[in-house]
Design brief:
Blueprint (H helix, E strand, L loop, with lengths): L4 H4 L2 H30 L1 H21 L5 H10 L4 H28 L1 H9 L5 H26 L3 H24 L3 H30 L12 H32 L2 H33 L5 H28 L1 H8 L5 H4 L2 H24 L3 H26 L2 H25 L18
Helix pairs in contact: 2-3, 2-8, 2-11, 3-7, 3-9, 3-10, 3-11, 4-7, 4-10, 4-11, 5-7, 6-7, 7-9, 8-9, 10-11, 10-16, 11-15, 12-15, 15-17, 16-17
């Protein structure tokens, strides 16, 4: 079917239309997996599975030293500069070898400790050792994904994402139906192998073209530049996922593992509908914001993004809330609906505010406003932990989602101020980052 002209002429709309079938397919499969997990393993299963997924999310950043956004930015800038690409990928692969090697050693030999921290038992130590072996695949796949995003290869990204997801999901569903929770964790742990394999099969020729493999050296000429992105990734991914793990442990200690599983189920649903925005941010917003250096163009692009995204997400979230009873019956038939239902309101409102703020926050990444980015991330994460710690005593598990909403209200106000503060002095190229006044 031919894509309508008004979509073809709008890059954001075009990318959205290309990703829509993949998002819908992934969403349908994810909802089915959630349904099966709720039936076979209940709230406890959701808690355990969420812990391993957050560990993998941490490794997504750590094994490539968090330079994904830097690769996206500089691949877009160095498309015709082979010397620049040589410097970029020599540094990237040096980082990868060091980070993935250290990750393997820590996880393999510390498997018992990690299993006890995540699951309160050493029963899953063997799964952690599997994760340690898979760690280099995660880092390599992340670097290559950065190339795809930097080149804005939307169609190939969609194909790679869908095929690899189907393979990983198929194995996960098989073990869920076998009622083997430990092997479900195994299936989730080895999914990055499928992702890397599919990526190499589909995108191999472009990787050979844009990465000068034969000229790469074990040196890091862009270390200082890329480490800025590493620092930002550490706070946005590593600390966030670690905080999610700690929040579950806190709920388990103060309430029960069942309560932790209810929050994990709500968070899982949130991640599924928010995944659409993450793809758009990495493939469109970062490359686009990298070329904008004045307030007028930034404001114009911001309005364009909001005009396209907010009505779609807003309508979808309203529908999810109005149909929450149906959603719970469809996706979480094995969970306690009476305790899960109150979580929807606060989670959905918080996610909508988060979406608005995230678009603005990507300006900090593209302009390498490291101290500003770290300040806002620490503010968000700190608020979430403190609010959760105190509100759980008054509102139980609902207090965690109220904390989610409250922290993003404050985060949005701060991010709006800091994003436009950057352009206050400027209609010129990028200016050096200054620490935000509120941090002093």
């Amino acid at each position: 079917m031919k894509v309508p002209k008004f979509i073809r002429e709008n890059v954001l709309l075009k990318m959205t239309s290309l990703n829509a079938p993949v998002i819908v397919t992934r969403l349908a499969i994810s909802l089915y997996i959630n349904r099966m997990v709720s039936i076979y393993f209940g709230e406890v299963g959701f808690n355990i599975i969420s812990q391993i997924r957050d560990l993998l999310q941490i490794l997504t950043s750590v094994t490539s030293l968090g330079i994904f956004n830097g690769i996206v930015k500089y691949v877009a800038e160095f498309k015709t500069d082979e010397a620049g690409r040589q410097r970029l990928f020599s540094t990237a692969f040096t980082f990868f070898l060091i980070a993935s090697g250290v990750s393997f050693l820590l996880l393999f030999f510390g498997a018992g400790f990690v299993s006890s921290y995540l699951f309160q038992t050493e029963e899953y130590s063997w799964v952690i050792r599997v994760v340690s072996v898979v760690a280099p695949c995660i880092g390599l796949q992340r670097i290559f994904n950065g190339v795809i995003n930097g080149l804005s290869q939307y169609k190939k990204f969609v194909k790679i994402d869908l095929i690899s997801y189907l393979l990983g999901a198929g194995l996960t569903v098989y073990f869920v139906l076998q009622d083997q929770l430990s092997y479900v964790l195994f299936a989730i742990a080895i999914t990055p192998i499928f992702q890397l394999g599919v990526l190499l099969f589909i995108f191999k020729s472009e990787l050979k073209k844009y990465i000068p493999f034969r000229k790469l050296k074990m040196v890091s000429p862009m270390a200082k530049t890329l480490l800025a992105f590493s620092l930002m990734s550490f706070f946005s991914t590593v600390i966030l996922s670690t905080l999610n793990i700690e929040i579950r442990n806190m709920i388990t200690r103060s309430m029960s593992e069942t309560q932790a599983g209810l929050w994990s189920a709500m968070l899982s649903l949130s991640k599924q509908y928010m995944s659409f925005s993450i793809i758009i941010f990495s493939m469109y917003v970062i490359p686009k914001f990298a070329t904008i250096h004045n307030r007028k163009d930034f404001t114009r692009e911001l309005k364009s993004i909001y005009k396209m995204l907010l009505p779609i997400f807003g309508t979808g979230m309203i529908l999810v809330y109005l149909l929450r009873g149906f959603v719970m019956e469809l996706v979480f038939p094995g969970l306690d609906h009476a305790q899960l239902e109150p979580l929807f309101k606060w989670q959905l409102i918080g996610d909508f505010i988060r979406l608005i703020a995230m678009v603005l926050a990507y300006q900090f990444i593209t302009k390498k406003l490291v101290r500003t980015f770290i300040f806002t991330e620490l503010l968000s994460l700190g608020l979430f932990y403190v609010f959760s710690y105190y509100l759980k005593d008054y509102y139980g598990i609902e207090g965690i989602t109220i904390a989610h909403f409250a922290r993003y209200v404050i985060y949005l106000v701060v991010v709006v101020y800091l994003a436009f503060r950057y352009f206050k002095r400027t209609d010129t190229p990028e200016t050096p980052d200054q620490p935000p006044q509120a941090a002093i």
